[in-house]
Structure prediction request, 367 residues.
Amino acid sequence: MENITIVLIDDQAFFLIFMEELIKQIDFPIPIKTKSFDNPEDALDFIEENSVDMIISDYVMPEINGIDLIKELKKLPDKESVIFIMVTAEHARNVKREALELGATDFLTKPIDKLEFLPKVKNLLHLRLKEKLLQNKTSLLKYEIERNLKEIKTRDREIILRLSMAAEFRDEMTGDHIERVASYSKLIARKLGFSNEFSEDIYLASPLHDIGKIGIPDNILKKKGKLSIEEFEIMKKHTIYGFRLLSNSKVKVIHMAAKIALYHHENWDGTGYPYGLRGKEIPIEARIVSVTDVFDALGEVRPYKKGWKAEKVIKFIEENAGKKFDPKITEIFLQSKEEILKIKEELSSEHPYFGSLLNLGTGKKPI
Prediction:
């Protein structure tokens, strides 16, 4: 543990400088690093991609206020333990009540009082430090638990993959497609800086992205040719069918799979379906699978098309960064091109190692 990171957010530069100077006065066992933003959108981008321990944000800001900021933070994985301090006016009781309900840790009154700021921030930092130290102490115990859970996870993975095969068989696909999408998605999640837990979850959840296709009629799903407008409207409903099948689960991985199933055809520029969401309105796990699924699907032979060469697919993804795909995820995907192609080769139907775990969809004898 090298330092503690605090993100400061205020549209007025004076208050950012003032808070930075106050934090420098805090006597703390490890260095305190501050990162200041006058734009909440920029702060959210930083928080999503970096390890953060505390956020101190003004409530009254243009475009995104403090309440909206908390709501956006709740959408980010692995950020639930970050301390959030909101700076509000003394009389803003309704704001404070709503902020607490959404997960705010504490409040500071504006204009900021040094005598209030220093002890409150220092005490909360000590709590955060103790929490992180406790996490380190339990790491060995966690390792032992994870070892014991490995067999259970393997079983759960097999159940999920076998369930996802129900949709893939009807779509004349084999298990190699869902295996590859899962592996690509796990790789991209790790490259984006997500935890091992999140990366493993998306590995398990992503194979269920098209489970809703079991509700699509065969005459549409297996049509050899372009779908009519009416047929395509029916096809698009597989996202909603998949969500209905998977939603309201108490299992975390299934809950993630439900979001992926519903949103993996949404586009970064808002032109996707079923809801036309735009940018970061689309859950990050669905944005990842959107890229990995398209990459693999375009390279496969379908009843209505020939498979594209890998170079053509990669060019398509590059050209659609910021349109169909999240530009950051696209950048990571392109940087990982060699690893992606290696996974594609190793998890192909012709490769001797494919199906060694499940032996599904290949027609081969178990290895």
DSSP finds 16 helices and five strands in the chain. Residues 4-137 form a domain with the Rossmann fold fold (CATH 3.40.50.2300). The chain has two domains: 4-137, 142-346. Residues 350-367 have pLDDT under 50 and may be disordered.
